[in-house]
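Ferrochelatase, Salinisphaera japonica YTM-1. Tokens?
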Amino acid sequence: MSRQDQTPVGVLFTNLGSPDDTSTPAVRRYLREFLSDSRVIDLNRAVWLPLLYGVILTFRPRKSAEAYRTVWMDEGSPLIIYARRQVAGIQAKLDAQLETPVVVALGMRYGNPSIEAGLEELHAAGCKKVLVFPAYPQYSATTVATTFDKVSEVLEDWPEPPRLRQINRYRQDSGYIGALANSVREHWEAHGRADKLVMSFHGIPKRYVKQGDPYPRDCGETARLLAAELGLGRNDYKVCFQSRFGREPWLQPYLDETMKAWGKSDDIHTVDVMCPGFSSDCLETLEEIKEENREYFEDNGGEALRYIPALNDRDDHIEMFTRLIREELAGWV
Ligand SMILES: C=CC1=C(C)c2cc3[nH]c(cc4nc(cc5[nH]c(cc1n2)c(C)c5CCC(=O)O)C(CCC(=O)O)=C4C)c(C)c3C=C
Ligand SMILES: [Fe+2]
Ligand SMILES: [Fe+2]
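Tokens:
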């Protein structure tokens, strides 16, 4: 049977998503969808919705839109641009490596292109089997589980949903750890080695961890494996958590407090910061780390904070994604 005659298998590649543009109304629409998700904000709706609509969606969109404008690229949101390049790169490698046709579609949990649009694209291509792959190395209910929830919600209305498989994390994958280590070594070759390496992960509320979210354990495992791969001692690096949102305690140590304290210290002059939990650069890396936290460190007396880019569309990153997908498709292709 020729390749064209075979039923294709689908891959729905997903990430968080971004606003459609950097206008305040577009950012409000995006934040409304994001922050209405009860996996992200689990507070009682009668308490949360008045706060969301009354306070947060009134004041935050304008401020966030300004921040998005500082990172926006010619073709749009960095997160979406890199995700599109990842999808194109994976598609090209799968086409070259497999006999069975595989179609890779992009779907964002919030905003566009949506998960619904991605699933419909795969349906239109004739896929009856779909692998859902959220591009988060560490599992959290706030990111991975909500992606699977959304897929189920969309498929509830379909007369014949596809058969599904899922990838729910890849925190320990040797190709992932290897690509992170390569990116650090290349940064060191180009800029020299700073006094400290910070591995900064997006935080979540501590309460979610008490309720069973394994996310910080996943972050710790990635950090330990990466440190071993780079031959780092306990004092050469530090794990921090960024992007705190709201009043309750989040995972600690907080990156911003650490950068302020290190800026004031006498023995730390330079810091390299990387974000292993972000498969693509985005607002939270390009604005919050490369701009905001660099200022916290340097304005408090630090010499230089150098940001190590996310793995984005590096070939070793695309290769790792492609291999993971092939492993997960065993028996289907
Ligand atoms: C990588 C993993 C992520 C986890 C875990 C996560 C949890 C989480 N996030 C918020 C609140 C916000 N996050 C925002 C942006 C944002 N978050 C992630 C990833 C994770 N979030 C990414 C990749 C991005 C960037 C999106 C982009 O378009 O570039 C924002 C929006 C931006 C802003 O207004 O500041 C909020 C808000 C919570 C509450 C949470 C867990 C409970
Ligand atoms: Fe977030
Ligand atoms: Fe942020």
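Residues 24-71 form one domain.
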